[in-house]
Write a structure and sequence with these properties.
This is NUDIX hydrolase. Keywords: Hydrolase, Magnesium. This protein is of the alpha/beta class. It has one domain: Nucleoside Triphosphate Pyrophosphohydrolase, CATH 3.90.79. The protein is 23% helix and 28% strand. The strands form 2 sheets. Strands 3-1-5-4-7-8 form a 6-stranded mixed beta sheet, sandwiched between helices. It is globular. The termini are far apart.
Length: 173
């Protein structure tokens, strides 16, 4: 149990018990992911180059059981590129359907801030072949990630958290 939430767990009371055992295990379980939009002073975005898929991605990854998305984002950014960032505000929540080997996901995109040019990055060799700084227009991305990042950049400008499905905006600022 996360000790930051111990008082909240106490206020919630005893965990619910199933009236019909096994129902909870039969319910759908989605993957949750969290990534950070990290920029340089020239407004280029930091992308990771995964060794397990053909497109660039944001630094971030899968949220572990019992882990808040913001903490997962911080942990994954540290693991993937060696940056121990204070993860800032939420920019976008996006649902993506399952495709190929990947289940459907709820993806949280956070503001990772601006880092100085020349900041030392250490790509995680077991998952990445490197990192790349790029504008959104020039990055080799899946269409859904391009849409999601476009929304994230809008959220940075407007200060409004955006809700999307497959990178398509569901609310308007």
């Amino acid at each position: 149990m996360d000790t930051r939430f111990s008082e909240d767990f106490e206020l919630e009371g005893e965990p619910e018990r199933e009236f019909h055992p096994g129902i909870a295990k039969r319910m759908a379980h989605k993957t949750v992911a969290a990534g950070a939009v990290i920029r340089d002073p020239d407004n280029r975005i930091l992308f990771v180059v995964p060794n397990y898929k053909p497109y660039l991605d944001l630094p971030g990854g899968i949220v572990e059981t019992g882990e808040p998305p913001s903490e997962a984002c911080r942990r994954e950014v540290l693991e993937e590129v060696g940056l121990d960032l204070s993860i800032r505000r939420l920019l976008v929540v996006d649902w993506t359907p399952g495709r190929g080997p990947w289940s459907d996901q709820v993806q949280f995109v956070f503001d990772g801030g601006v880092i100085l040019a020349g900041t030392q990055l250490r790509p995680q060799a077991s998952e990445l072949t490197g990192v790349r700084w790029s504008s959104l227009a020039d990055a080799h991305l899946r269409a859904s990630l391009r849409r999601r990042l476009s929304l994230a950049l809008t959220a940075l400008e407007t200060g409004v958290v955006l809700h999307a499905e497959f990178g398509h905006l569901l609310n308007t600022p």
